[in-house]
Amino acid sequence: MTTFETYLETRNGTVLDDDLVVVLRNIAEATREISDNLRTSSLDGLTGATEITNVQGEAQKPLDILSNEIMLEACRKSPSVSFAVSEELDSEVAIHSDGKYAVIFDPLDGSSNLDVNVTVGTIFSVIRASTSGEILKNGRGQLIAGYAAYGPQTTLVLTIGKGVQIFTLSADGIYLMTSADAKIVPEAKEFAINAARRSSWDDAVASYIEDAIDTGHNMRWVGSMVADTHRIFNRGGVFLYPADRNKPASGGRLRLLYEANPIGLLVEAAGGAAIIGTSTILDIEPTSLHQRVPVIFGSKNEVDKISAAYRERVLDA
Ligand code: P6P
């Protein structure tokens, strides 16, 4: 099996520059360290919540803080990193004044699942940015995007510009390639949505879900986007976190820069689709670091049905 180090040496046939190889190696090392800390968190007093509320208005978990620090350390160890943007921090953090890449991440997504031992993940994205003014660029400017899923296995899923590769962490702490070119099947009969929020769905989503149920689709909702995403990579399906029709200005729950964009790039690189409605996630021009957007992604044929439903409503309006 190909090791992650061999993958870095060959760059998977892309032109990834040496500086980005260093960044990616340090991010992968950070995910290994986060994985190690998760495995014994109940033994190390790293469960529960702190008294600290983050910029999202959420109570930080000890592992949120620890994972954030581990990712920041990965950035500091990478001389070419100019800034770090984290879900846990109000604004970008200056790392190296002569850096040319920004690392954007959600250090521990789904952390509300930690105490119940459900899969959580780290989501990351790397863009070219020498100044803070260059950070807000659309998702098609991402040079690297990926996530680590901390579940029964620890898996690293990433794209460096040529398809999607999946690595599994071995017992001795080495990422081994388990898929050289992961694809999302275009058809699937499974959707992921929080059905408790049905009253907030717009008509396009409501009609898609109603049709899906009528045609025998199954539902899965983990409450951890990385876990739902990894299932879609494994067997297809569609994930929906639409905007609240009663609070359209809220944009939805998920964040553009460090959740929707990296997942969107991975999904498109694997032959899937990722939209907010009638437009694609990767073409949204960001206006703020913690901007929230509606998120619908997965099997292309399913996402196309939803996009068509949105277009119909725009035409009917
Ligand atoms: P809800 C986790 O907090 C998260 O950001 C995603 O990982 C997950 O898909 C979603 O929120 C769950 O949201 O409203 O079902 O709790």
Automatic annotation (TrEMBL):
Annotated ranges, domain Fructose-1-6-bisphosphatase class 1 C-terminal: 186-310
Residue positions binding Mg(2+) 1: E87, D106, L108
Keyword annotations of the record: Carbohydrate metabolism, Cytoplasm, Hydrolase, Magnesium, Metal-binding
Residues reported in the UniProt entry to bind Mg(2+) 2: D106, D109, E259
Catalytically driven reaction(s): beta-D-fructose 1,6-bisphosphate + H2O = beta-D-fructose 6-phosphate + phosphate
UniProt-annotated binding residues for substrate: D109, G110, S111, S112, N194
PROSITE patterns named in the record: FBPASE
UniProt xrefs under Gene3D superfamilies: 3.40.190.80, Fructose-1,6-Bisphosphatase, subunit A, domain 1
Subcellular location, principal: cytoplasm
EC number assigned by the record: 3.1.3.11
UniProt pathway annotation: Carbohydrate biosynthesis; Calvin cycle
Superkingdom per UniProt: Bacteria
Subunit structure: Homotetramer.
Name this polypeptide is given: Fructose-1,6-bisphosphatase class 1
Lineage of producing organism: Bacteria, Pseudomonadati, Pseudomonadota, Alphaproteobacteria, Hyphomicrobiales
GN (gene name): fbp
